[in-house]
Amino acid sequence: MSVEKTLSIIKPDATKRNITGLINAKFENAGLKIIAQKRLQLTRSIAEKFYEIHKDRPFYNDLVNFMISGPVVVQVLEGNNAVKLNRNIMGATNPEDAEEGTIRKEFAESIEANSVHGSDSFENAKTEISFFFAKIELIV
Ligand code: IDP
Ligand code: MG
Questions:
Q1: Which residues carry out catalysis?
Q2: Distance in Å, CA 112 to ligand 1 centroid
Q3: Which residues are within 8 A (CB) of 42 and not within 5 positions of it... i.e. 6 or more apart?
């Protein structure tokens, strides 16, 4: 097992309902450490750039509008196999398919307003972490 970092975003549906602490407890209870965290209001251009990989998907414009509809909390999680572990804690994209005990099963409102983002590979985690955080913010 190797210690990894992954990027997590607590999405606007969750900041609006004031449940960022409940979500952070899920990460911490599963053994992930929150080593960096900040609350931001994303601009349209930042959200478009972050989700550029999805720009040809039919839900892209709605997703960008949702991600700028309120503040988000961007965070770096660290732990053994953090990328995969975080995806397990999050649950499936569509909360109807998510397993019991996962963040999306308990908190997501819909397939779009699904409370959290998590990097889906080690390589993407590196890119996404440097998108939001400077090196100096990651010294633990
Ligand atoms: P993931 O967040 O589980 O990795 P992705 O396929 O990367 O899922 O999609 C990125 C985000 O786009 C999802 O978390 C969700 O907010 C939104 N999304 C994905 N599929 C749909 C859809 O079919 N309709 C509306 N929004 C979607
Ligand atoms: Mg994804």
A1: 117
A2: 6
A3: 50, 67, 68, 72
Which mutation among 62, 114, 116 tests ligand 1's pocket best, with the greatest number of atoms within 8 A of CB? 114
Look at residue 140 and tell me whether its pLDDT is greater than 80.
no
Closest ligand 1 atom to the C-alpha of 87?
3
Three-class secondary structure assignment of 24-83: HHHHHHCCCEEEEEEEECCCHHHHHHHCHHHCCCCCHHHHHHHHCCCCEEEEEEEEECHH
Residue 132, both tokens? 């939001």
Residues 1 and 81: beta-carbon distance below 8 Å: yes
From 7, 117, 139, 1, select the one nearest 66 (Cα to Cα).
117
- Which residue's alpha carbon is at the smallest distance from atom 25 of ligand 1? 112
CA 8 to chain centre: 3
Query: pLDDT (tens digit, 9 = 90+) per residue, 10-53?
Result: 999 999 999 999 999 999 999 999 999 999 999 999 999 999 99
How far, in Å, from the CA of 60 to the mean position of ligand 1?
Answer: 9
DSSP 8-state code for residue 121: S
